[in-house]
Amino acid sequence: LNGGEKQRVGFARILFKNPKFIILDESTNAISREVEDYLFDLIKSKKITYITLSHRPLLIKYHGQLIKLHKHGE
């Protein structure tokens, strides 16, 4: 499987197990924005609480709160 396929399988596992809380670390960096929108909409519809770690600023739109960490406290 390529990177995007592995990420979609990971989301399928999340949706199948339906946990209350998940941490997503660079979980959408190999998939299209359309698929990303779809997957985050599914997670929200299942009322799963999530924390996302990413370098992609566009993911901000999926979150109610943002914590920025800077190198050396800058």
Structure commentary:
By secondary structure, the protein is of the alpha+beta class. It has one domain (3-73): Rossmann fold (3-Layer(aba) Sandwich), CATH 3.40.50. 38% of the residues lie in helices and 14% in strands. The protein has helices at residues 3-17, 33-45; strands spanning 21-25, 49-53. The protein has a two-stranded parallel sheet with strand order 1-2. The model has no long low-confidence stretch (mean pLDDT 91).
What are the main properties of this structure?
transmembrane helix; membrane; single chain; two-stranded parallel sheet; 74 residues; Rossmann fold; ABC_transporter-like_ATP-bd
Summarize this, please?
Belongs to the ABC transporter superfamily. ABCD family. Peroxisomal fatty acyl CoA transporter (TC 3.A.1.203) subfamily. The chain is an alpha+beta fold and 74 residues long.
The number of domains is 1
CATH architecture call: 3-Layer(aba) Sandwich
CATH fold node name: Rossmann fold
So what's the oligomer here? single chain
Helix/strand order? HEHE
Strand order of the largest sheet: 1-2
Instruction: Report helical residue fraction.
Output: 25-40%
Q: What does the overall shape look like?
A: globular
Radius of gyration, Cα only, in angstroms? 13 Å
Structural class: alpha+beta
**Distinct helical segment count:** 2
The CATH class = Alpha Beta
Tell me the CATH superfamily: P-loop containing nucleotide triphosphate hydrolases
Strand content: 5-15%
Say how many strands there are.
Answer: 2
GO molecular function: ATP binding; ATP hydrolysis activity; ATPase-coupled transmembrane transporter activity; long-chain fatty acid transmembrane transporter activity
Organism: Ascoidea rubescens DSM 1968
Protein name: ABC transporter domain-containing protein
Keywords: Membrane, Transmembrane, Transmembrane helix, Transport
